[in-house]
Amino acid sequence: MGCWDKQKKWGRDSLARSFSDYITDRFYNDIVTAIQNCIDDNGDSLNLWVNNIHRIGEVEATDFHIKKMWIDDLPDMEVGIEMAVEADLEVKEADYHYDNYEECSKWFLLKCSGNLNCGLDDFCILSAEIYREKAEPKRPMSDSLVPIISKDKLDDIASEILMKYYPEALKSPIAVEPQVLAERMGLNIIIRPLTEDSSVFGQIVFCNTILDTYNADAEKVEQTEIIGKTIMVDPANFFLRNLGSVNNTIIHECVHWEKHRKAFELERLYNKDATFIRCQIVGGVKDSKVRSATDWMEWQANALAPRLQMPISPFKEKTREFIRQCRQEVGNVEIVDVMEWVIDSLATFFVVSREAAKIRLYDIGYDEVLGVFNYVDGRYVRPHSFKKGALKPNQTFSISQNDAVAESALNPELKEKLASGEYIFVDSHFCLNSDKYIQRNDIGELELTDYARHNMEKCCLVFDLVVRPVNKYGEQFFTECVLYRDAASNIVFEAHYTSTDENINVDDEIKKYNADILKVVKSLPATFSGTLNKLIEWSEMTEEKLAEEAQISEKTIQRLRNDEPDNVTLETVVQLIIGLSLPPALSDCLLRASRKDFMMTEQHMMYRMLVLTCYPKNIYECNEMLLAQGLKPLGRQNRAKS
């Protein structure tokens, strides 16, 4: 189902239903009678708190309030019910000399059962007793009759479903065929357009009904009679997504049938017209703090479907097999360097999407998948790995250029750290500026070394990732979303610097280099021409070479060296900084001498980032970054565009 939040809709819009309210309303008299019988049977041991009664006589239950209900998810459509009820009691005086009565309350525990297939017509109160502490049910349900499933129990639940309907999938690695699973559950599958805009990928019809479907040939909505126990899949799944997503859609609806029929039947007790659950793409990700019963059903279906398609033990077995196979073919390389092939091989074998296989690998402990199949700014980020536990699920080393610009300008902690000159921005990472971690590739561009890619926690800054809401929804399914940073994803992320750099150790080489830079800083004069002269001498560059690297004419460089300029432009200063590859401490001196500073404009914020973190890059690489932001390039490239 991808990383979209899908709003569940019954046959018509409904509020969350309360099972305890329904029980109270429908079986009120039965419950009062059971409480009264318990009172009559335990008159001597009620231990009632009364003040004005000399001797307790008749005790009558006049009302009750369900304080807590424990619902046990029994086989088929049975439910086990235990409820702690606080009964309002009227206590009468037994001594005929007094004509007193007093009101008090007492807690009782009622044990009941019922079957939703018959609309609870067989509801039975099995026992009523004075309340004492009780254990939680083995298979608890919410008041809306949605199973309560913790994340650590998802694989167990998936295994139970497979053992019931598809046991062969637990014995050895095989692809679970969704059509076979549905058939074994007694479900039909219909492929038919559901909406004009393909916003609904699937739905499960619980009982016979007439539904609106879309006739693509006639280009109109028409009513269609659908029998119960039917999964409907929009063919747009095949054209807009892939076979793995189609399979996930079908199994997703199978989960609703298996785990959420009781919640549906509760809805039917309130609303006889309810007939189906519709999975509608609404975009965004919903805030987990305000999940409704239908949100929890959606979460469960989203979480269980891939676990049914890729059951944990066979999936682990196949993963190990593919890793061994790939390492035998390409050599004993790091796992991260074979993980892309492994992900695609698993996706093909289990007939799931690449994203589903990637998420499942993360579920079973392969943190390396966080560093593969990532695209930032539309560009592929080379695979990278890190020490286990170095990143939380909502963190990353890879950030977009836009976030890098914003954070380097607006985040005081990051701004201070970058001013040291110890980090440069390369391959979508802020990495320590050391030959150990950064190198030039065959075409002269900066990139991370293999050592850096395999030890990211030692050299790269960490950022917190948040999903940018695209509508009223907040965050949900966060880990899954983070793993969707692929080329086709339309989820928008924001990265924010977090000062979690305890694994980074600035080595002696960098410290010595910075100490040497400080000596140069102390030797610089106050004038612009004098500072420029000293920096050119420090760089050991000829004027001809600097003119090429900065894309400034030799005559201009000579003039700036020999005559104190009245008004040198900020663009010229930035070009000189990039051409001379000046670290921040030296570029800051040249900027001060020019009496220029950066303003809070997009162009200037980008300039600031270039001089702070991109100074080892050549001007062509810097101009690519400017153009990617829709900004003016520097030097001859700018003049050529004009």
From TrEMBL:
It comes from the Bacteria. This is ImmA/IrrE family metallo-endopeptidase. The lineage of its organism: Bacteria, Bacillati, Bacillota, Clostridia, Lachnospirales.
